[in-house]
Design brief:
Elements (H helix, E strand, L loop, with lengths): L2 H13 L4 E4 L11 H7 L15 E5 L3 E8 L2 H14 L5 E5 L2 E10 L6 E6 L2 E6 L4 E5 L8 E4 L13 E2 L1 H15 L5 E3 L5 E2 L23 H10 L9 H15 L3 H11 L7 H13 L7 H10 L17 E6 L6 E7 L19 E3 L2 E3 L14 H14 L15
Parallel strand pairs: 5-10
Antiparallel strand pairs: 1-2, 2-8, 3-5, 3-7, 4-5, 4-9, 6-7, 6-11, 11-12, 13-14, 15-16
Helix pairs in contact: 3-4, 5-9, 6-7, 6-8, 6-9, 7-8
Amino acid sequence: MDLSQIQELRQSMAAHGWAPIPLMTGDKSVKIKDWSILAREKRDYFAQQPVRSDMANTGFLCDGLRVVDIDIDDKEYVHHVGRIALRVLGDRPLMRRRSNSDRVALVYRAAEGAPPKAVVSGARGKVEVLGRGQQLHAFGPHPSGGTLQWEPAAPGEVGVEDLQVVADSQVDLFLREVAELLEVAAPVTIANTGVAVQNAPEPAPAKRELLIGFDPKQPRSEDLWEAVRGLPNDGRFDSWEAWNRIGMALWAATQGSHEGFQMFDQWSQKHRSYDPMKTLQRWAAIGRSPPKDLHAGTIFWEAQQAGWKPAYQSERIVERPQRVVDDIDPETGEVLGQSVDDGLAARFVWVDPARFPRRRFLYGNSYIRKFLSVDVAPGGVGKSSLALVELLAIATGRDLLGIEPNETGAV
């Protein structure tokens, strides 16, 4: 597409109600000061400007839109999130795909106003609902080298007014179902001021049990080398994003040192598509915009997920924790006192089971007083809804699901 065709594309977008945004050629970033203000005040502003050869990619302003951007590499989870979106938000969005990735973006129109961005983020990736002050890359080559494809039509072929409308309540329900699927905290809303406004607690990363002795913030070189050698470069890292993520983690872990590049290069060589020049260029590009949220812990965890264990793990000595336990009279079952349990085997003392205190079931055979109760089921099947109704029954003392609560109280 030459510059005159790009000009026509942007003018067609503006004529159909979109606010086109010039992006850097071959990239998805904007390098124009106050671009969102200019496009917001006059939606066809950039459609009337001459197209620059260094800004030949095109995006659009997301004010007044609800754009679901699924930034997940796992194909199965992408499909799960997509199904939730189509069920909760509507089955007629504009869909943007990328030729070299399973990631997708779904474009809807906000029912009213220009809601801000909201995010659900965890170890498997993140799902964003873009809004006021954001833009989505719509046309031109992606930085990964992939091409963008639109279904059933592209912006400019269809108008903003023709988009399926979604309400804030639908978006909220969608994000909470996604948070449950990804097993992360509830979503966070980001205001267009750039300040995070938390509707719920900040999404916490999934718990990762790192091996004892590994400090993710100050790793030893030998530990990092061992993890890199134990980390396969297989199908999980076929996408550009997954490969780049490992590079960013190694850059952060080594402060961009030459040794860090050697680790990245050696690991990249394991993949069939290895290109030494692209690997060097990517390392340099990471240095121009260093990562903030990745570190050596990412490398250790990914290697562990692949079955790697350090050679000396079996030689480690773990201190035996001590705890205070009750001393029970075997005849009466009464607590006589307490002592320290050092974890060593002790003489067995039989206690008549009839003397054991009975457990207090609050609701049928569920929710035992002073015990943790857990519902286990796949994501998206209604665990949260079931728990809310059961807790409501306990709080009110009413039979809501065919079970009479044994006790009532605050929940």
